[in-house]
Amino acid sequence: MYTKAFIPFRGYYSSPFARWQGSLQNENAIELGAATAKRWLASKNFDPKMIDYVVFGKTVGQLHSFYASTWAGAMLGAERVPALHISQACSTSTTCLNYAAMSVETGNFNLAFCLMTDRCSNGPHTIWPNPLGPGGEVISENWMMDNFNADPWVGLPMIKTAENAAASIEGITKEFCDEIALRRYEQYQDSLANDREFQKRYMFPIEYKIGKKTGILEADEGIRPRTRETLAAKKPFIPGGVHSSDVQTHPADGNCGFIVTTREKAQELSADKNVEIQIISYGFTRVDKGFMAAAPVPAAESALKNAGLTLKDIKAIKTHNPFAANDAYMSKKMGIDPMTFNNYGSSMIFGHPQGPTAGRCIAELIEELVILGGGYGLFTGCAAGDTGAALIVKVTG
Question: In terms of CATH architecture, what is 158-196+278-391?
Answer without folding.
Answer: 3-Layer(aba) Sandwich (3.40)
